[in-house]
Design goal:
The N and C termini lie close together (10 Å). This protein has a 5-stranded parallel beta sheet with strand order 2-3-1-4-5, sandwiched between helices. By secondary structure, it is α/β, with parallel strands linked by helices. It has 8 helices and 5 strands, in the order βαβααβαβαααβα.
């Protein structure tokens, strides 16, 4: 495992798993949200985002945390390992509440309010986004694909398999 992407529903714990992987392996960690968002909640130009991502993909090893469907296939083609956090909806919704008001290394601002649009995106993830992810996983089945169905499975992997 030298080039790892960590994907899954927003608020599933991708950044937490990514940080744990980074701490265990020493592989450099990159957060897509930090490449895409500014501290004032505006986004960078798509060309800037793609330049930032391309620079990371050229490196010898990396962990990239985040979904961003428009670049998922690019990252999947470049990685050797995919970690997919396929957790139940309630886990992801709990993640919103747990992180509100707390500084995060994977976001350039502190979330203090509930974002109704973001919550709706999370609620529709299994119907709208997950089928696309599963298709890509099928297409890139030659990769080392690790799917966790619970936080306990991820924790066990991080403790015993690395």
């Amino acid at each position: 495992m030298k080039k790892i992407i960590v994907i899954g529903c927003p608020e599933s714990g991708k950044s937490t798993v990514s940080r744990a992987l980074h701490n265990k392996t020493g592989i450099p960690l990159y957060h897509l949200d930090m490449m895409y968002w500014n501290a004032d909640k505006t986004t960078v130009e798509k060309s800037v985002f793609l330049e930032r991502l391309s620079a990371v993909l050229e490196k010898y090893e990396w962990i990239i945390d985040g979904n961003y469907g428009s670049t998922m296939e690019l990252r999947m083609a470049a990685c050797d390992t995919v970690i997919f956090l396929d957790y139940p909806l309630d886990i992801c919704l709990d993640g919103i509440r747990e992180r509100r008001g707390k500084p995060r290394s994977d976001m350039p601002w502190i979330e203090t309010e509930e974002d109704a649009e973001f919550i709706e995106f999370i609620k529709s993830y299994n119907e709208q986004q997950k089928p696309k992810v599963l298709e890509l996983l099928k297409k890139y089945s030659c990769k080392n694909i690790i799917i966790f169905k619970s936080r306990e499975q991820a924790d066990e992997f991080l403790i015993s398999k690395l």
